[in-house]
Amino acid sequence: MKKKKIYLSLATMGGDELKYVQEAFDTDWVAPLGPNVDKFEETLSSYLEKEKHIVCLSSGTAAIHLALLQLGVSYGDEVICQSFTFVASANPIKYLGAEPVFVDSEPDTWNMDPNLLEEAIKDRISKTGKKPRAIIFVHLYGMPAKIHEIMAVAQKYDIPVIEDAAEALGSSYDGQQCGTFGYLASLSFNGNKIITTSGGGALICPTKDIADKTKFYATQARDKAPHYQHSEVGFNYRMSNVCAGIGRGQMKMLDTFVERRRAINAYYKDKLKDCPGISFLTAPSEKYAANHWLTCIQIDEATAGFNRKDLLEAMEQHDIETRPLWKPMHLQPVFSANAYYGNGVSESLFEKGLCLPSGSSLSHDDLNEVIAVIKSMYKK
Ligand SMILES: *Cc1c(COP(=O)(O)O)cnc(C)c1O
User: Fold this and answer.
1) What is the model's pLDDT at position 34?
2) Which residue from 19, 143, 149, 306 puts its CA 20 to 30 A from 179's CA?
3) Band of residue 1 on the pLDDT scale cut at 50, 70, 90
4) Which residues pair with 138 in a beta bridge?
5) Which of 371, 369, 366, 363 is nearest to 274 (CA)?
6) What is the C-alpha separation between 292 and 124, in angstroms, rounded?
7) CATH no. of 17-251
């Protein structure tokens, strides 16, 4: 019998998802918005343990788009964005006719380097005569960024911050949930994230006014009038009541999933600790409580005797899905003309890094198979 494929990060259903989806069907609420959306927003809001207002949307990308829009980003503006990220952090800047300015990572958390951030701000002001309109930083792979240092630079220059917490639901810094630090923050519930709605996202807003405005833009910017009247350009970005039903069920599992992904990370670390040339993305101190959405390793070829491409291919032969780390935005053809401030950290991470299977439903046997393939690399 052919063994089953081991995937990087499959969705895991808890059991109550279908109940809420069924509720949507039973009440004929198969539409954008509805009771599941309201409840999902409430649950998220209480999970974050902060006075925040959540608006569920069709994707995390939509959340970043509406965040930038409400910060007044428009044609000709510049927005600073972490280079080491998934393209969804940067694309919405272009939707508004603005240009991303990319900033490299520091080696501790692999996220935005606060010193390079300040260097970039100063240089943009001197080159363009104006401040960047916003800063987008990311908690990549669920590892909290150097939040306080980043926020301090942002405050010094009075530039609003968008926190891309798409990969970091369940992560916290110094006891405070990721997604509650920035002026605005995005979450993603795409299929491979720590919880899923099949596809979806949310914008975390500081006030009810901003949440209401977000809902306004997400539903075609409809004015208050008995007929359909529009004074501004809007979008069709709200979450469906069916998807939100999945989200409600998933929220009951979130703590279990975070626990599970942390356990997977700890297991890999323990079993691979004697493998020369392999190192892990590791929290710089106990304050950084990562959800370990994906476990990431770096392979130093000189010490290990193989590189990430060799390992990825060996995994493929064993029907195990692994993935290189995100290719930095400043190396992407689509952004080749954009400004970049860096020191080679994310380039090196991309060259040497690999994400290991980390899904919440992986068994010990699955993990042992992955570990065996890594160990076999040393015998070649
Ligand atoms: C997944 C993700 C997003 C948004 O993704 P959607 O697929 O649009 O929900 C944004 N930023 C990062 C870093 C992500 O990983």
Assistant:
1) 86
2) 19
3) low
4) 164
5) 371
6) 34
7) 3.40.640.10
Long-range contacts of 265-271 (CB under 8 A, 24+ apart): 265/290, 265/292, 265/295, 265/358, 267/364, 267/367, 268/295, 268/297, 268/356, 268/367, 268/370, 268/371, 271/367, 271/368, 271/371
Residue 216 phi, psi (nearest 5): -60, -50
Q: Which atom from ligand 1 is nearest to the alpha carbon of 138?
A: 13
Return the structure tokens found at 349.
């991470």
Q: Which residues pair with 245 in a beta bridge?
A: none
Judging by beta carbons within 10 Å of its beta carbon (0-12, 13-18, 19+), is residue 22 exposed, middle or buried? exposed
Kindly report which listed range (13-17, 44-48, 140-144, 187-191) carries the lowest average pLDDT score. Answer: 13-17
Mean pLDDT (whole number) for 319-327: 97
255 Cα: distance to centroid of ligand 1 (angstroms): 21
**Whole-structure pTM value:** 0.96
Q: How confident is the model at residue 2 (pLDDT cuts 50, 70, 90)?
A: low
CATH topology identical between 17-251 and 254-379:
no
Residue 266: alpha-carbon gap to chain centroid: 21
Mean predicted lDDT score pLDDT of the chain = 96
pLDDT of residue 114: 98
Domain extent listing, the chain: 17-251, 254-379
Q: Record the tokens describing residue 89, joined without a space.
A: 């952090």
What's the gap in Å between 1 CA and the centre of ligand 1? 37
Q: Which CATH class is domain 254-379?
A: alpha beta
Nearest CA to ligand 1 atom 13: 86
Gap between the Cα atoms of 78 and 69, Å rounded = 13
Residue nearest to atom 2 of ligand 1 (CA): 166
Tell the residue nearest (CA) to atom 6 of ligand 1. 60
Q: How many angstroms separate the CA atoms of 292 and 27, rounded?
A: 38
Distances (CA, A) of 336 to 83, 134, 279, 304, 329: 12, 21, 30, 33, 9
The 10s digit of each residue's pLDDT in 175-211 is: 999 999 999 999 999 999 999 999 999 999 999 999 9
Give the model's pLDDT for residue 62.
Answer: 98
